[in-house]
Design a protein that fits this description.
Helix content: 25-40%
Number of strands: 20
Distance between the termini: 24 Å
Bound molecules: flavin-adenine dinucleotide
Radius of gyration: 24 Å
CATH class of the largest domain: Alpha Beta
């Protein structure tokens, strides 16, 4: 053994569980791995995700059996911003490879006609340009999440596994810890660990840190009665629902005039003056999406969605379709051939500009962190900032 080895601190490899494989979870794992490269304390990270994909970044596609071409809809987040220098630097490598693309969309304000005989009123609003760049990922909005997941070296992602509420099981000391483990841990911190379980009661293992990145409503359930030190703060931010309508046409020739791209002003994104609909996005006009069959995604307003969140989805679809028909003014010949609808129960955080941002919630004794986009402004950039805060909190204890 060399003198250097004798003087080196005992390396600690914390076991970290992340509940939720959305962008907050993936970015937290990415930044934890990068930070550990600098300290030499390689963490063992496990992400548990109840679904089979990456959270509210979501893409749905359907293939035309005749042409083999696809309709495609980003039915969760459509784009993201990168306003801070840190986040701009973080995304730069994917901008270089072209996986991320700036979307310089032409944006209009669209007021639907009061009856089907008239055309909607469409007024130019702005162009999303480099000053306030919006980014998309190609070929799908999910592609970036998948790239982030694939690049993780010390992280295991366990899909289709729902972590049970922490309250059901006490936060206790692992009886099976070896003396060696305990010595290593007490070198840095308490030997306390948390055992997680899935919903069938099967153990998912023991962890030094548990990071919950579930949406606010689900985080409340996960942490209820668990003794989490900051429990009452989880309920503070309010999240609202969003219904998404996905429409497809067989051919550009079959599009209604409002979508044919021959109107002035030409447009890619419309902000609606409507009590039901919020925004329309033309998918096949996005950069590097030209191969798609005509596909349009429409987000309903969050307040309307929230007040209809428990309604029958078929009834909701009908109402959204009527509103979309009024906005886009199609007739029998130019009606969409593909129609789908998705309900997001927890879509958007209500941001109150006057109140201070919550930030991540930490229980230092139990080594639990509650995080997610809703701890900040409820967007993708928030996921990155919350991941940074989490990594800082964990690194400070080592
Ligand atoms: C319709 C819509 C439009 C949007 N538009 C934009 C936009 O234009 N720009 C923008 O920046 N952002 C937008 N957003 C917000 C953006 O999608 C989110 O900020 C971001 O995806 C949140 O990531 P997250 O990881 O915090 O949460 P999520 O993506 O919700 O990930 C949390 C994960 O936790 C999992 N989970 C929950 N409970 C458990 C459990 N018990 N066990 C295991 N796993 C669990 C969930 O399945 C989920 O995958 C939009 C969102 C929606 C829904």
């Amino acid at each position: 053994m060399t003198d250097h080895a004798l003087c080196s601190p005992v390396l600690f490899a914390p076991k970290i569980a992340i509940i939720g494989g959305g962008l907050t979870g993936l970015l937290t794992a990415t930044l934890l791995e990068r930070a550990s490269n600098q300290t030499g304390n390689t963490p063992q990270i496990t992400i548990f995700e109840k679904s089979r994909s990456v959270g509210r970044l979501a893409t749905r596609y359907r293939s035309d059996s005749e042409t083999g071409k696809n309709w495609q809809w980003s039915f969760g987040a459509q784009f993201f911003t990168a306003k801070t220098a840190d986040f701009q630097q973080f995304i730069a490598p994917w901008l270089d490879t072209g996986l991320l693309q700036p979307w310089c969309a032409e944006v209009v304000e669209l007021t639907p006609a009061s009856n089907n005989e008239q055309s909607p009123n469409i007024q130019s609003k702005e162009q999303w340009d480099a000053v306030h760049a919006r980014y998309i990922s190609k070929p799908k909005m999910t592609s970036w999440g998948r790239e982030l997941a694939a690049a993780l070296k010390h992280t295991t992602i366990v899909f289709k596994t729902r972590v049970a509420p922490l309250a059901q099981y006490l936060h206790h000391q692992n009886p099976q810890q070896s003396q060696h483990q305990i010595q290593n841990q007490t070198h840095n911190q308490d030997s306390k660990q948390t055992e997680l379980f899935d919903e069938t009661g099967a153990s998912l293992g023991w962890f030094d840190w548990v990071i919950c990145t579930a949406p606010n409503g689900q985080a409340v359930e996960l942490m209820a009665d668990s003794g989490f030190a900051q429990q009452e703060k989880i309920t503070k931010p309010q999240m609202q629902a969003c219904y998404t309508l996905m429409l497809g046409w067989d051919d550009v020739q079959k599009l209604p005039e409002t979508l044919k791209g021959q109107l002035t002003p030409q447009w890619d994104v419309a902000y609606l003056n409507s009590t039901i609909l919020d925004r329309i996005f033309i998918e096949h006009q996005k950069p590097a999406h030209g191969e798609l069959l005509p596909s349009v995604t429409i987000h309903a307003r969050n307040d309307w969605s929230e007040s209809h969140v428990d309604d029958d989805i078929e009834l909701v679809k009908e109402q959204l379709l009527q509103a979309a028909k009024q906005a886009l003014n199609w007739n029998e010949d130019s009606a969409p051939s593909q129609i789908d609808c998705h309900r997001w129960r927890y879509a958007a955080t209500i941001v109150n500009k006057d109140t201070e941002e919550l930030g991540i919630l930490i229980d230092a004794t139990k080594q639990w962190i509650v995080s997610g986009d809703w701890c900040a402004k409820g967007n993708i950039e928030s996921c990155y900032r919350m991941a940074q805060q989490t990594v800082k909190a964990i690194m400070q204890t080592q």
